[in-house]
């Protein structure tokens, strides 16, 4: 998305978005009963960024309930609140919808009236409908019933309770006139009073459901673009970022490293289910620098990026700091310039030439406009005997640029696959006392109140989510390298994960 520079730009962008929405997603265009959407998202469990379905328990409920209509979604979101859950409405709903176990109102006609919600009273509007259809109340009085019951549930005052009791007599009398038994009518009113205390406003619930369906529709038909936008939003916070990365990977996508040829000011979609972070995720790369780099593309060589046709340095906004960030995150692989027989032996070599000698390679004189370019190639030859960064140096550089480090950068995927084949999964997937793998981000010696020495490990799993482990029986000597890959037996108590030194093993990567 281009940088906005005026109100006119904002207006044009909004109009473009509104035009697309009106042509594709307005209620007279979109099919709210598209079963492919319901099945792809809510049934199969694809939930990244789906409104009302961000928490794992909610997702599980939706998968079990398998909604097929907007009303189904509205009902599920209305049920998944503390009140209805405490009343076990979720279980009653699943039994009725999936197993055909109708809720016993004492009269099948009541179940028929509530058939849209599988015989359960979920919406406040259901209270009004029952007051009209069962008790024969005029429409204007139906809302009085709803408000009286809701007020009693919320305030619990004597006056509110008296009002509800007063209406019960009229309700029962009206129901009997309409052919319902007194026992059924009285029981129905008491159940209405019980369930409606948790009932949700249907118009609100449907509006939320349509928003949720919009998200699901976009995920179904514009999956890559939806996920790129989702990652853009979620990447602003480390915990959100870890969650989003994990969700996107579960859908078979790869989070690939930034590359100067492809990265943009937003997440970029690449062929083969690959998603690339934004240039702006890098400290040191601002919007002006990113836009200048993008304008230079495509370039087939590093020289095309750095110097003009006269051999003079041409970058201005994309300054030394931005260039350093790109070298530190190894963002030049598409140019094929790293390797034994290439321009640079490794990225450490590139850093020495391009960053440590930045002023030298930018020089230009009247006599020799391309002086800096010539020095660049001389330095590339002179400084070639250069060892690559150690693993720890590379990790520190990534943290310096991104503020954190993605697990994919820490260990080859084949190692994680080998561990999985042996039944060793990430600490993020903890399912009881077993063997798990994790990376040690930090390890600090500690003493308990009783004087016992232990080591506190701050670790991350595959989703980059942080955990802490109390490692007891520490010998006072052993130390972990930062971001070492460790496999070990873990247990968990109210304070966190627990293990001992002898139960942990470091894996070389």
List the helices and strands and how they pair.
Elements: H1 7-24, H2 35-43, H3 56-65, H4 70-79, H5 82-86, H6 89-99, H7 108-113, H8 124-133, H9 139-155, H10 158-177, H11 182-195, H12 202-221, H13 223-234, H14 238-250, E1 254-255, E2 268-270, E3 274-276, H15 287-296, H16 302-306, H17 320-328, H18 347-356, H19 358-361, H20 371-382, H21 391-402, H22 413-421, E4 425-426, E5 434-447, E6 453-460, E7 466-472, E8 484-493, E9 496-500, E10 504-507
Parallel strand pairs: 1-3, 4-5, 7-9
Antiparallel strand pairs: 2-3, 5-6, 5-8, 6-7, 8-9, 8-10
Helix pairs in contact: 2-12, 4-12, 8-9, 9-10, 10-11, 12-13, 13-14, 17-18
Describe the protein's architecture and organization.
The protein has helices at residues 7-24, 35-43, 56-65, 70-79, 82-86, 89-99, 108-113, 124-133, 139-155, 158-177, 182-195, 202-221, 223-234, 238-250, 287-296, 302-306, 320-328, 347-356, 358-361, 371-382, 391-402, 413-421; strands at 254-255, 268-270, 274-276, 425-426, 434-447, 453-460, 466-472, 484-493, 496-500, 504-507. With 509 residues, it is an alpha/beta fold. The protein is built from 22 helices and ten strands. It folds into three domains: 23-202, no CATH class; 251-382, no CATH class; 413-507, Nucleic acid-binding proteins (OB fold (Dihydrolipoamide Acetyltransferase, E2P), Beta Barrel). A five-stranded mixed barrel has the order 5-6-7-9-8. A three-stranded mixed β-sheet has the order 1-3-2, covered by helices on one side. The protein starts with 6 loop residues before the first helix and ends with a strand. Helix 9 packs antiparallel against helix 10 (158-177) and helix 17 (320-328) packs antiparallel against helix 18 (347-356). Residues 1-7 have low confidence and may be disordered.
